[in-house]
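User: Fold this; tokens only.

Assistant: Input:
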Amino acid sequence: MTKSAFISGVSTGIGEASARVLLEQGFRVFGSVRKAADAAKLEADFPDRFTSVIMDVTNDKAVQKAAATVEKTLGNRKLDALVNNSGIAVVGPVAHLPVEDVIHQMDVNVIGMYRVIQAFLPVLGMDKTREGKSGKVINISSVAGKIASPIFAPYSMSKHAVEALTNSLRRELVWYGIDAIIVGPGAVKTPIWDKTDDIDHTPFKGTDYEERLKTISEAAKKMGEGGVEAREVGELIHRIIENPKPKTRYAILNKKFLMFTLPRLLPTRTLDKILAKNFGLT
């Protein structure tokens, strides 16, 4: 039987690349977009096996409708994988970043993911009347899910929460045979880095952080340009789906030892100093 997957946020980046990898491997893929036009390329390239759904993860009715579409299309079959990729990055110093921005960050990256998981659990295997092997929940976290950098507090908060959600979920769903896995990329070459110039620095104007934030934005853009290809993340997701016994967490980034392994081994105060220096905060 053809394997199936639902991927949230397939307009660009990791979501689009993952959809293409799975479609090329013969999967039936459902992908969420916020505007119909965003799915045009995938629908044109894979008209028989790609189905787009209009869905904002912060809209409960839209999420429920998306899950119903998948359930109806699959008939009595289970969904092989749910890939929670939708997310945004809110950045700024805690002292000056509006609380409303932080609430929006958590609503999209955490509550939105929670909402999608709840809606899709029946078709993943919680509904025991469905045929086939129970599916996997693959949640896209980040290096920020383990290492909290200055200026990125809201984003790091959300990704730390994703890590906790995924681990709790996996332990809850053992008796349904549904697995939950974390994919934690570092910098990935996606269009999101092109938007760093559009970040509104107005809330920080006149503060000690104003000039530093401009420098950080420029550094972030360069980091994105040196990141892994989005397709590499998609290929990893494919391997996880096919693996009957995947690891519970995967880190995928360039210079992994330097950027991920070593910082987690250093004393916290030492890492504080290194990050403060790197972000121009000393």
